[in-house]
Design a protein that fits this description.
297 residues; alpha+beta; N-terminal domain of MutM-like DNA repair proteins; Helicase, Ruva Protein, domain 3; 2 domains; DNA-binding
Length: 297
Amino acid sequence: MPELPEVETVMRGLEPALVGQTIVEAEIRRPNLRFPFPERFADKLIGRTIVRLERRAKYILAFLDDDTVWLSHLGMTGRFTVFADGENSRNLAEFYFQPGSEDAGQGKHDHVVLSLNNRIKIVYTDPRRFGVMDHFPASDVVSHKLLANLGIEPLGNELNAAYLAEKFLGKKAPLKATLLDQKYIAGLGNIYVCEALFRAGLSPTRKSSTLSNRGKPTAKGEKLVQTIRACLNEAILAGGSTLSDYADANGNEGSFQQRFDVYDREKLPCHKDGCTGTVKRLVQSGRSTFYCPKCQK
DNA sequence: CGGGACTCCTGCCAGC
DNA sequence: TGCTGGCAGGAGTCCC
């Protein structure tokens, strides 16, 4: 589920339930996700109060009251579910919440279960286990292995045509691949790259360097910056995209998938006004790309 | 070094 | 109906 808009949505859903609360129990139900959990992970979380949440790229950072950070990444199939009983759920947004129950967190792929002092339970579920959790001093946020090499946030001011012109100068890799590379722009994933390229009328196969005019910004780059921002902002407003709901969440699901122009629309007509093209699927660095060959050049 | 293939893991679905 | 192969929102690592 998770690219930037989905992670942002998840974080916003977690905030009212977590911030200001203290972790009273932590159950780590297996040794690892993608990587091993930290040593004595549960002990490090128990007794800590969550001071605030932040999103960096596709990571959720929970800052704790002992100046440490609990980091989470949802991988492909990770999700958090908040279990709240009637009393304490009343003041929380309806989003993402399930009624409290005795078997909360007992599912086959429920790997981490936290109980908070407000009687809320937070369950992390991840069938494929491509997710990540870690815990480290807050002072290490900048240097942390997973965070140190991330590029700029696409919704921040740093993303502009000049940035693309500088970073993409001389880059031969296909534009699609470079936009997916988190060391340039952090937070984009397969869906929103496809969608932003469609809106910009740019082919995923063109060389990245074509958005750079000997290091100077281009109109195409300017357009792409706009469409990236628009896609992400619209998706956040829609609560992200929900592609499968086998976890059967009770809460609201995102709806941006209903507005996809190209993603998962192979062989369907191009949405662009006046374009008679058909959406095509191709594989770039092992991943599906959807685009309209007729209007994306 | 840049670029691409491979890898982790489970579930689902189309096609036979 | 049941099996098989392909594919899935990510990204670190390895190899050329």
